[in-house]
From TrEMBL:
It comes from Thermobispora bispora (strain ATCC 19993 / DSM 43833 / CBS 139.67 / JCM 10125 / KCTC 9307 / NBRC 14880 / R51). Pfam families: TauE. InterPro entries: TM_pro_TauE-like, TSUP/Inactive_protease-like. One of its GO terms (cellular component) is plasma membrane. It is found in: Cell membrane; Membrane. The lineage of its organism: Bacteria, Bacillati, Actinomycetota, Actinomycetes, Streptosporangiales. It comes from the Bacteria. This is Probable membrane transporter protein. The chain crosses the membrane at residues 40-60, 72-92, 98-116, 136-158, 204-225, 232-250, 262-281. Keywords: Cell membrane, Membrane, Transmembrane, Transmembrane helix. It is a multi-pass membrane protein. Belongs to the 4-toluene sulfonate uptake permease (TSUP) (TC 2.A.102) family.
Amino acid sequence: MRSLIVLGLVGFAAQLVDGSLGMAYGVTSTTLLLAAGTNAAAASATVHLAEIGTTLASGISHWRFGNIDWKVVGRIAVPGAIGAFAGATFLSSLSTEVAAPIMSIILLTLGVYILVRFTAYGLPRHNLGKPLRSRFLAPLGLFAGFVDATGGGGWGPIGTPAILASGRLAPRKVIGSIDASESLIALAASAGFLVGLGSENIDFAWVGVLLLGGVIAAPIAAWLVRHIPPRILGSAVGGLIILTNIRTLLRSDWIGAPGDVQATVYIAIALVWAAAIAYSVREYRRNKEHESVEAVEAVETELRRPRAEEEPTPA
């Protein structure tokens, strides 16, 4: 019973992050399932089955808040579903001994990317309003869908930063569109796992609890996306993913690191993680202060303009 409650909280927290950041539900949930000793393919299958419902709830919530660009959804979702089905069948064919470390490496790579991307650069906003073309979105969707299924997550960590980096879509629209399209990716990946694994290797009680937690969090996250600083959240989530997957790799048969080495690595990662969060907080506050100063200057300029126009012209 306790494990189910913990899973429900994991689903809630993961969807809260995913719905407000546009990533990390699958990566966070799969990471924790792997840490609990779940089979790699079964962990990814469990998460993707839950995501069918959570992403649908999240998509509806984002639609109600006007956070979706349906043209982007249409161009990225179908290639993403094809990639997800292929990735699920590929992962199902691997042995547990091979699959678990491979998945941890994928998740670790995504965690490093999330941490560096959001800590160092924040959210780009240039090129807003320019169209996103199919020749960019289709390959992106295919690749992100494949990694999502094989890594237990990756649709958001790959798709969201890639579209944000283009600077052509407002951040809340990027997050809402990625979340809305993920329902099709989760459905395709789940179909691939059911074909490759069958249903006997999946704990549907875990699926249900993860789903329940995610559905409760979805509308809250869609509202919070306008208020939570994504830069800080990205740094926090990236560090968590790195720390958890380093733990899995160090304890795997591939490495088998002794306890003192593991402790040293954990301390080093924790220090880097804390520094990254502190830096993100500082940069966020500095940017807010800069924006406030610019806003005040703009108001003062606007207030001075009528007075200048009323002054008599010198003779």
